[in-house]
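ok trying this again, last paste got cut off
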Amino acid sequence: MQRRQPRVAVLGGGSWGTTVASIVSRSAATVLWSRSAETVTDINDHRRNHRYLGDAELHRTLNATGALDEAVEDADVVVMGVPSHAFRSVLELVAPHLRPWVPVVSLVKGLEQGTDRRMTEIVAELLPGHPAGVLAGPNIAREVLAGYAAAATIAMPDQSSAGQLADLFRTSRFRIYSTTDVVGVEVAGALKNVYAIAAGMGDGVGAGHNTKAMVITRALREMTRIGEALGGQRDTFSGLAGMGDLIVTCSSPLSRNRHVGEQLGRGEKIGDVLAGMTQVAEGVKTTPVVIEIGERLGVELPIAREVDAVLRGAATVGDAYRGLTRTAPGHEIHGDTF
């Protein structure tokens, strides 16, 4: 007997949510929910999301809707692609319409302000009993949609579930690995955005490639230390969701968070930078949350601390880089300074 094709609801019409929805629609009946009527019409009538992805063609079977209940009421899997600041409110609206035990996969690389919670922790709070996981990796949406070879990791509490869900996202050029380290993958995805701002600041002031490599390397160490303190596994931070995503987000000209840092390095104010963007740079909201977590856990975060100072207007980019290089380097692996 042939198995029924799963029904997938992707919530969020940004660049990555749309890209994932297009990929999943190749193997499953997929509907994308967006608040924007313009985006819904663009997808349904023109097979594109021009606002976020230009004229890149989406899969012909992808459908979009502006009705949240319609998107989720028959879903077998829900994929959350809304920004972290909207995650809770959207999930609260989803709850009355979702069938029991439907897994929820987050695409969000951020932490909730005010509670310091990861997205899967919000799922556990609002949708108890629903398996919650995360898909993350070095994935620039436009490149993945264009068919460039790429990879990501899906983390679920149960390895069997992770493996089954991986099949939904996998294509011949988009490799999906699996793990049970939900905490590590989720924390890595959120933290790398903070450090991409730091790398971008260096680009903005012309710090050079050697400096950038130094910042990325030490950022990876910083990510690993706080990730382990939060319960993540060390190896996760040297994998796709950690080092892989950190490299691409710190290096790609398409990276939103690197762009924020670069503009700050060129002397722009954070308000002006954000006003000129059409998509969310999660690292801006995540940075103060990371600082709070570090203080609570007693983990030194020198790079994140300097990024936070710049974002708050308490320091210039030049001050931040001088502050980092003035610290005396200690043991490369076991030290807690920059």
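PB: full thing came through this time. The chain has two domains: 7-180, 184-326.
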